[in-house]
Amino acid sequence: MKHLLFSPYTIKSVTLKNRIVMSPMCMYSSHNQDGHTQPFHLAHYESRAAGQVGLVMTEATSVTPEGRISHEDLGIWSDDHTEGLSTLTEAIHRHGAKAGIQLAHAGRKANLDSDIYAPSASSFSESLKTPVEMNEQQISYTVQSFKEGAERAKESRFDIIELHGAHGYLINQFLSPLTNFRTDKYGGSREKRYRFLSEIIDAVRESWTGPLFVRISGAEYHENGNKMEDFIYFAEKMKAQGVDLIDVSSGGVVPAPIDPYPGYQVKYAEKIKAEAGIDTGAVGLITSGNQAEEILRNERADLIFLARALLKNPYWPKQAADELGYKLEGPRQYTRAW
Ligand SMILES: Cc1cc2nc3c(=O)[nH]c(=O)nc-3n(C[C@H](O)[C@H](O)[C@H](O)COP(=O)(O)O)c2cc1C
């Protein structure tokens, strides 16, 4: 039987050897080193590539210093970052995996000593600062920073770029009526709330012709938040602008209780794929090979993003292959009996 989880996936000129993606996960390990790659990052990401993940997506990497979630985040706001990031892509490529990078800006969820910025001056929680409402100059500087981040990602030989438009970070703050109270051309209707992301996509596309993913939160868990019809509208717009895949997560816009269960977000990826006709990635409590295979077989999503399962077990692809009765090529120790 053909195993979809272990079948290749081609986007533009990039082919992933299988459908398993290491989901972006902040490791907060730059240790106040101005966002520079540390030995930890090389070991951490290379081990998942050696474990036969098809695409290793590095964590939310900030396009500006003030866009970091914390002082420990990786950064791509300076030309000085490309040397370390190049060693990272080299380590990932060594094992036949492709390297992706998630370009991010935390907006009002930045936990920094300096001023923080957002579409509107409303704080996420009592423990975080009230952000400065961005003026048009700050908006265009941030759009330009995403573009420069994409140029540095290219220079660092990443194969895929993902924009972080989920979890209540800056792009999501512009998209959501729960966090965007602007009355200018960047706020109000969903057309206007989409403008910031639209400008970023166009700016990135000026210098990046490779595969472009966007992660969104496909549910905001609040009655006044965006609804599925809004996400479908955003997805159609993104598709028209040349986005290749939408990685569908959920939540994080406002503090809201959610009750996750296995595959709890897959339905959002499925809906967006069906309605907007764009490829999607599914993420969220996907832990077994059979579960992943079912999602692909029923065309609910095209890629499977795994976070905590890969933190626990870098060799998760081997575990899934055993479960599905598929022979995974890999290091010899996989098959050696002790
Ligand atoms: C330690 C940790 C860090 C994370 N950092 C990011 C991140 O940088 N960017 C992002 O989009 N999601 C981030 N996430 C969310 C994961 O990518 C994923 O969407 C979520 O954990 C659900 O998938 P899972 O059930 O397979 O863990 C993080 C999750 C964890 C556990």
From TrEMBL:
Query: Where, by residue number, does substrate bind?
Result: Y28, H164, G165, A166, H167
Cofactor(s) essential for the protein = FMN
On assembly, the entry states: Homotetramer.
| HAMAP family for the chain | NamA
| Annotated keywords | Detoxification, Flavoprotein, FMN, NADP, Oxidoreductase
Question: Which superkingdom does the taxonomy of this entry point to?
Answer: Bacteria
Q: By its UniProt entry, which SUPFAM superfamilies does this protein fall under?
A: FMN-linked oxidoreductases
Pfam families annotated for this entry?
A: Oxidored_FMN (PF00724)
| Catalytic activity annotation | A + NADPH + H(+) = AH2 + NADP(+)
**Protein family:** Belongs to the NADH:flavin oxidoreductase/NADH oxidase family. NamA subfamily.
Q: Tell me the residue numbers annotated for binding FMN.
A: S23, P24, M25, C26, A60, Q102, R215, A307, R308
Entry function: Catalyzes the reduction of the double bond of an array of alpha,beta-unsaturated aldehydes and ketones. It also reduces the nitro group of nitroester and nitroaromatic compounds. It could have a role in detoxification processes.
Its Enzyme Commission number(s) read 1.6.99.1
Its EC top class is: oxidoreductase
Name the GO terms of the biological process aspect. Answer: response to toxic substance
Q: What is this protein called?
A: NADPH dehydrogenase
Classification via InterPro entries: Aldolase_TIM, NADPH_DH_bac, OxRdtase_FMN_N, YqjM-like
Gene Ontology molecular-function annotations:
FMN binding; NADP binding; NADPH dehydrogenase activity
Organism equals Halobacillus halophilus (strain ATCC 35676 / DSM 2266 / JCM 20832 / KCTC 3685 / LMG 17431 / NBRC 102448 / NCIMB 2269)
Which range is the signal sequence, renumbered to this chain? none
CDD domains in UniProt: OYE_YqiM_FMN
- Domain (NADH:flavin oxidoreductase/NADH oxidase N-terminal) spans 5-323
